[in-house]
Structure formats: C-alpha cells, structure tokens
C-alpha cells in the first residue's frame, strides 16, 4: 500500500462507538477474553466457531459453523457492525469475502501474509526488520543444499499451520535431514528451513495500531517455553533496557509497515551479542500478552477493541512486575484445588495470583486451559511461588 493510500485510509477510517456489535471469527480463549473486555466497554459480540459452546460462545452468541462456511460468514456479517479474527488460521478466502461485504479493519491481506511463513518473512524483511536466515525448501536436494549453506543445527518448519512447537523439527546432523523431510513434507506441504539462532532469551512485544495511524506498544515480555508451548511470560524482561527499547521500536515499525489495524504480536530472539531477530508475528492478541490483563493500565484485549474500532489507544504503562504462567490440562485439577484451598505457606512470597480459566469442555495434556497472572514486587518472588507449588513439575 502506497503512502497516499495509507493517508486516504486514515482520513476515511470509520470509528465504531460502544453499542456496536463486533463479530469474531474464532471462538477460542482469545475471543472470549476480547469479548469480556469489550463488553465492559459497552460493545456487543457475536462469534463464529465450529466447536459447540466454544469459550467465546459461552459469553457471547455463537454461530456454530465451519470457518470455510460462506453462508455462516455472511450471517456473521449481517449481525455485526465490524468483524475481527482471534487466530490466524481462519480461512483467508472467507476473510476476503467478509472484507468485501462488511467492515474488516484488519483486512484479509495481513491474514494472507501471516498464514504463510515465507510470505511473512519476506514482509518482515521488507520493513527493514531482521529475521533469522532462511531458505525455501522444495525437495530433499534443496534441503541438503540449504542445510550446507545455513549450517547445522537448523530448524525445518511447515510453511502453513503449526503452533506450540508442532510442525517443525530441529536437524542436528546430516543424517537427520531425510527423516525430517519425510516427516514434514507429507501431503505436499511447503517447507522452510531456518538457521538455528543461539539465543540468550526469547521475547515478544505486543504492538497496536489504529486505522487512523496511532501506534503504541506494550512492555517487552521474556518468554520461556517447555516442549514448544509457552510456559512463562516474565515482565519486566530480564534483558538490557537498550535491547527492550529496540525491540519495541522494531515491533512498532512492523505494525506500521504491515498497515496493521488491531494488535500485532512480534516474537523475537535475543542473541548473546544483544542482536534481535524476529521469529514470527501474529495479527491478534497473544498468549504472551496475557500479563497485561492485571499489570498494565490497558489490557491487550481492550487495546485490540480500541484499535479496530478506531478509538484512541489506551495507556500501556506497566503498573506492577508480573509473571504469567500457563495452566495446561495436566495442571488444571491441582490449580482448581489450590484456588479453593489457598496454601498459607505461599503467603511469604508476597505474590497476588489472578486465575483465568477458559471454559474449555475437555481437558487434555498440553492443552491450554487457562493462565495465572502473578502480581509481585519482584519477578523472582513469583518464580519462587511457581516452583514451590510443585504444580508445574507435572510437565
């Protein structure tokens, strides 16, 4: 989009005031928390999701249908003043249809870009933001050549889909090339090979941008993953202030370059030399931004509603140190039990736990069932609290 088109878009951007209905493509926990935040602001919500009584459908009316169902999408459009999406694996064709028949400030172009790792990486590079060196993989021979160029270890990923560590394989030796290729190339999938980045920390920044061009970012979150799934988000991040400032600057630059309307979650690696590489982006609220619900003047969910509705963006100031810990299926029973019977022995840490459960009907190992935000005076106190509960030693 040219500069002239962006200026025209900003001038003509419509503002949706409280009382308007927001349609949400996707009925998971992100949609649920968005609806809860937006309802408090006076907005109404309706969601489209194929799962009966989806998390968002428990707090807003739900159209139960496939994401590729064009008739259901039109029904959502008729019931909504504006439409957003809560995860990027929504059918881009349906999003394009809605864009032509309704008001979708995020548009379908950004969705199309972020649904495919190669398109996403090229868009990030076009913004002048560094990504880890990568190669497109078309066959086993191209994989062998790319591995030689990038060096081992390296990471082979499917270009579309994949989340929480699924759809990727770390290749540590030449002997592992063929097995990784056979595993991930099934069904004609497109593949991407990335150089393995030796990092001192994984971080993320949630940036927000409104159609009129206002841009803000939230404080940097330091993220710790276990088995490919986010385990902890630590804020303030335990990295240099200069690196944090640069990370927020890069995230805001990407939000502007990609013409974002709403939120953009930007995940990055911090190398031992303090360099930053963007790993991936997501045009929506993000697990690593859940800490904002209690620790910031404005939550990421309120900010998303403000941004897509073209309201002034909220203050992103951090009000308290915090650690967010995910509650997976294997943790749920003990978390619920402990919530009902507080452990006074944990009071010594001076931590205030805030539990958020998502209302999912079935608890499975590795499935995100909720999270706890631990407000504290020092993040180490919250980390000690997590360790002393023994809950997360279950894996």
UniProtKB/TrEMBL annotation:
The protein's annotated pathway: Purine metabolism; IMP biosynthesis via de novo pathway; 5-amino-1-(5-phospho-D-ribosyl)imidazole-4-carboxylate from 5-amino-1-(5-phospho-D-ribosyl)imidazole (N5-CAIR route): step 1/2
Which keywords belong to this entry? ATP-binding, Ligase, Nucleotide-binding, Purine biosynthesis
Which residues belong to any copy of the ATP-grasp domain? 121-309
What EC number(s) would the UniProt record show? Answer: 6.3.4.18
Q: Which NCBIfam families match?
A: PRK06019.1-1 (NF004675), PRK06019.1-2 (NF004676), PRK06019.1-5 (NF004679), purK (TIGR01161)
Enzyme class, spelled out: ligase
Entries under HAMAP family matching the protein: PurK
Asked if Ligase is a keyword of the record, the answer is yes
| Reaction catalysis annotation | 5-amino-1-(5-phospho-beta-D-ribosyl)imidazole + hydrogencarbonate + ATP = 5-carboxyamino-1-(5-phospho-D-ribosyl)imidazole + ADP + phosphate + 2 H(+)
- Where along this sequence does the record place binding of ATP? 117, 157, 162-168, 194-197, 202, 225, 279-280
What's the family?
Belongs to the PurK/PurT family.
Matching InterPro entries = ATP-grasp (IPR011761), ATP-grasp_carboxylate-amine (IPR003135), ATP_grasp_subdomain_1 (IPR013815), PreATP-grasp_dom_sf (IPR016185), PurK (IPR005875), PurK_C (IPR040686), PurT/PurK_preATP-grasp (IPR054350), Rudment_hybrid_motif (IPR011054)
Question: What does the entry list under GO cellular component?
Answer: cytosol
* Protein known as: N5-carboxyaminoimidazole ribonucleotide synthase
- This protein's species is Paenibacillus mangrovi
- What does the UniProt function comment say about this protein? Catalyzes the ATP-dependent conversion of 5-aminoimidazole ribonucleotide (AIR) and HCO(3)- to N5-carboxyaminoimidazole ribonucleotide (N5-CAIR). Catalyzes the ATP-dependent conversion of 5-aminoimidazole ribonucleotide (AIR) and HCO(3)(-) to N5-carboxyaminoimidazole ribonucleotide (N5-CAIR).
> Which GO molecular function annotation, any one, does this entry have?
metal ion binding
* Pfam families named among the record's database cross-references: ATP-grasp, PurK_C, RS_preATP-grasp-like
GO BP annotations listed: 'de novo' IMP biosynthetic process
| Assembly behavior | Homodimer.
């Amino acid at each position: 989009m040219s500069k002239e088109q962006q200026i025209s878009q900003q001038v003509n951007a419509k503002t949706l005031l409280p009382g308007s209905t927001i349609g949400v493509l996707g009925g998971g926990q992100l949609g649920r928390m968005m609806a809860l935040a937006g309802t408090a602001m006076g907005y109404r919500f309706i969601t489209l999701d194929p799962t009966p009584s989806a998390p968002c459908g428990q707090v807003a009316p739900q159209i139960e249908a496939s994401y590729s169902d064009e008739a259901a999408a039109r029904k959502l459009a008729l019931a909504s003043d504006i439409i957003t999406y809560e995860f990027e694996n929504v059918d881009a064709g349906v999003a394009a249809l809605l864009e032509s028949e309704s008001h979708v400030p995020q548009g379908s172009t950004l969705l199309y870009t972020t649904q495919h790792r190669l398109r996403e990486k090229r868009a990030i590079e076009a913004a002048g933001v560094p990504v880890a060196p990568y190669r497109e993989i078309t066959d086993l021979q191209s994989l062998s050549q790319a591995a030689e160029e990038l060096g081992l270890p390296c990471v082979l990923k499917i270009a579309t889909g994949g989340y929480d560590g699924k759809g990727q394989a770390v290749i540590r030796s030449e002997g592992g090339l063929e097995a990784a290729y056979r595993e991930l190339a099934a069904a004609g999938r497109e593949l991407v090979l990335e150089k393995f980045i030796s990092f001192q920390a994984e971080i993320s920044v949630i940036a927000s941008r409104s159609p009129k061009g206002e841009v803000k970012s939230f404080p940097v979150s330091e993220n710790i993953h276990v088995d490919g799934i986010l385990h902890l988000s630590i804020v303030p991040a335990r990295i240099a202030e200069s690196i944090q400032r640069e990370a927020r600057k890069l995230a805001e630059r990407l939000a502007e370059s990609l013409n974002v309307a709403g939120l953009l979650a930007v995940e990055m690696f911090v190398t031992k030399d303090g360099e930053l590489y963007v790993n991936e982006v997501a045009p929506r609220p993000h697990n690593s931004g859940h800490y904002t619900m209690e620790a910031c003047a404005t939550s990421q969910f309120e900010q998303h509603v403000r941004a897509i509705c073209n309201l002034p963006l909220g203050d992103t100031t951090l009000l308290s140190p915090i650690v967010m810990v995910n509650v997976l299926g294997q943790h749920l029973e003990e978390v619920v039990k402990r919530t009902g019977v507080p452990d006074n022995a944990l009071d010594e840490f001076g931590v205030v736990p805030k539990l958020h459960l998502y209302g999912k009907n079935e608890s499975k190992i590795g499935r995100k069932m909720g999270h706890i935000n631990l407000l504290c005076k020092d993040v180490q106190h919250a980390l000690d609290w997590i360790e002393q509960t023994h809950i997360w030693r279950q894996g």
